[in-house]
Amino acid sequence: MTTTATQLKHDVRDLALATQGRQRIEWAGREMPVLRQIQERFAQTKPLAGVRLTACCHVTTETAHLAIALKNGGADALLIASNPLSTQDDVAASLVADYGVPVFAMKGEDNATYLRHVQTALDHRPNIIIDDGSDVVATLVKERQHQLSDIIGTTEETTTGIVRLKAMFNDGVLSFPAMNVNDADTKHFFDNRYGTGQSTLDGIIRATNVLLAGKTVVVAGYGWCGKGVALRARGMGANVIVTEINPVRAIEAVMDGFRVMPMAEAAPLGNLFVTVTGNKHVIRKEHFEVMKDGAMVCNSGHFDIEIDLKALKQMATEVKQVRDFTEQYCLSSGKSVIVLGEGRLVNLAAAEGHPSAVMDMSFANQALACEYLVTQRGSLTPGLHSVPEEVDQEIARLKLKALGLTVDSLTPEQEIYINSWTVGTE
Predict the structure, then answer these.
(1) How far, in Å, CA of 369 to CA of 290, rounded?
(2) In whole angstroms, what is the distance from residue 12 CA to residue 2 CA?
(3) Does domain 2-187+353-402 have CATH number 3.40.50.1480?
(4) Can you give the residue ranges of the S-adenosyl-L-homocysteine hydrolase NAD binding domain (predicted)?
(5) Would 2-187+353-402 and 196-349 be classified into the same CATH topology?
(6) Which residues are annotated as a binding site for substrate?
(7) Residue 7 has pLDDT above 70, yes or no
(8) Residue 419 has pLDDT above 70, yes or no
(9) Where are the beta strands (DSSP E) in 133-281?
């Protein structure tokens, strides 16, 4: 931990990277018109004035614009990384040096450093926590009970984090409101499907430079992220197999034209495996044992537990790095399994994450959810709350406006019709 000339505490790789980071932040801003409009309004109205805010996010060029919006809104904001491999070091440096945001994040930080940064985030004594996976909230609940009275609320934008928050609430330990940003339409329809779909394949291709056309790609999970990955893989000529535990999603995948089968049946067939379930050990020992020689496995779910790497390491006679973010596990059978991005989010470990255009809407939701928590302080009950529909609609309208598009509006006659039960067949 060091102190800059501006007296900002931080823990970043190298402040000399700030110039490059600022250029990349400015470039990303070209594709983020919705958040830019929120930044401008926040600068005038200061809805977060006096609020201490901790954000645990992937430290990318897009996240930088969220941090700027929060600071413009008057928040005393601090940023840590939500994943050890997702930080862009030049962006972290620029946020400290150019934008005055305390950042504690380095690409490749070990678990001890990550956990120390979580404690730093809580040392900030936040009133609002923006979380990505709910590690900060979980640590607060388990270890910092005396700080619960400081909390106005939290916002969460990952499926994994929402699952954890629901479990906390069911166990009676979530004593404050949590905004479910993940399920906002302008988040999951676009970020999860189009963002994850494109950026996951981008990470895979950057790490391996393989041709996907003609390959058999196994996608574990057919939620919005899985839909996006399957769609993009098929678009690049891959033969896609989907594995699922949810029968409704399995039928949907079949109707969308994909083969559906259990992982045990897919394991001998796949050339590339992508997990996007949010669950633990989706690919494990019995699957590695029957995979083709050279099969590649990667994860695009939040935590690095979807692939049972501990079991794979025990099976391996040798592990060697063959490319950046690409490790070959040589097995006693003579076959090998290739792991991308250490089993962490491959789109951030080996690439740059989601395109700015989709993160524009996701982070607009985050910023407005924070504002909502402040304006509704004292009136929201503990537990999960949806982003208000009017906020979702406003973000969509702003995005359409930025794209130069307009939509139809109801005529007075149509308004009467859809709100009436007396008018039917004429």
Answers:
(1) 46
(2) 9
(3) yes
(4) 192-353
(5) yes
(6) 60, 132, 157, 187, 191
(7) no
(8) yes
(9) 153-156, 177-180, 216-220, 239-243, 259-260, 272-275
In the annotated binding site, the residues are 60, 132, 157-160, 187, 191-192, 221-228, 244, 279, 300-302, 347, 354
| CA 356, chain centre distance (Å) | 13
Rounded CA gap, 172 and 192, in Å? Answer: 29
Half-sphere exposure of residue 166: CA atoms within 13 angstroms, side-chain side = 9
At 6 the pLDDT is: 47
CA distance 39 to 72: 6
CATH T-level topology, domain 196-349: Rossmann fold (3.40.50)
Q: What is the pTM of this model?
A: 0.86
Instruction: Mark the binding-site residues for NAD(+), compressed into ranges.
Output: 158-160, 192, 221-228, 244, 279, 300-302, 347, 354
**Sign of the alpha-carbon torsion through 237, 241, 247, 249:** negative
pLDDT exceeds cutoff 60 at 3: no
The per-residue pLDDT for range 260-285, each reduced to its tens digit, is 999 999 999 999 999 999 899 999 99
260: left (phi over 0), alpha (psi -120 to 50) or beta: beta
